[in-house]
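# step 3/5: fold
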Amino acid sequence: MLSAEDREAIGQRLLAALADVPSPCPAVLLPLAERAWQKAIVRDFPVMLPVWSAQVAGSPADLTIDAAAAWAGLYLAAKLLDDLQDGDPCILGPATEMHTALNLATGLLFASGTCLAGRGDGQSGLRNALARRFYRQGLEVAAGQELGMLYDQATDVLDWAWKVLIAKGGRPFSLACSAGALSAGAPEATAAVLAEVGQCIGEMVQLLDDLIGMQSADARDVASHSMPIAFGLSVMEGDDEQELKALLGAARSGATGAVTSLFGKLEEMGAVRYLRIEASARALRARELLESSCLDRHSAGWVALGATIDWLDPVTGHDRPS
C-alpha cells in the first residue's frame, strides 16, 4: 500500500526522467526542475491525487508512482506556462527569464511521457495507453492556454470562460485521478468515476484561484478575462454595464485604485457569490461520487480525497476566501 511518504518517490521518479538522457540536459534542466518541485509541491495535494485514486480503486503498484510522476510533470509544466502567459510570478522566482520558464515547461512535458516508458514489467500496453492520455492532455492544456487569449472572438463570454477553465484545470485533474485508478488495475467504469471527481477538484481549484485574485486586487488579474470578469460581462445591463466597462478600461490602463474598484463592482454584481456557489456545487458532486459502490470507502485514499474536497469547499473549507 502506498502512502503520503511516496510523495518524495514521485518527485525522484520525475527528476530521474530528466536525468536519464544525454548531456547537457541533466546539467541544465535538472536543477531547475528540482527548484520548481520544491517551490510548487508544498503539500500532498495535488501531487498525491493519482496515489489516492489508486488506493480507492484497486491495488496501487510501481506503475502508480510512474503515473503520479507523469502527472506531476504535466502539473508543473502547465503552472509554468500559465504563470508565464498571465504575467504572474514564476514558481522559480521573480527574476526568472521568460526563456527559462518556457524551456523548463517544455522539458517537463516530455519528461511526463518518459515517466511512463516501458520498464520491462509486462505492462507495456497499459503504459502506452496512459502515455497517450498524457500526450493528449498536454495538447488540451496548450489549446486551453491559447483559447484564453481569444476572448474577443467569443460570442458567449461566460461559456468561453468555462471552456478555458475546464481545459486548463478540470481536465488535467481528471486525468490525474483516472490515471491513478487505471494504474491500480481498476476497470474503465471505476476510472470514469474518479475522473469526474478529479474534474470537480480541478474546477474548484480554478474557481478558488479567481476568488483569491479578487481579494488581492492584482492588476494582472484584469489583463486576461478571468471568470469574475466574464461573469460581470455576461450579466451587465443599464448603468451597471456602463460602470463596469469604464472600470475595466481604467483598470487595464493602470489607473490608481481602478482594480480594487473593478473587483468591488464585480462583487456587487454577484461575482463572488457565483464563484462560491459553483465551487461548492462541485464539492457536493465530488462527495456524491465518492459514495459510489465501486470505490473502497475504507481506504486511506478515500479519506484523503474527501478531506481535500472539504478543504477546497469555499463554504466549509478552512483558510479559503470568505
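# step 4/5: annotate
The chain has a mean pLDDT of 88.
# step 5/5: archive (pending)
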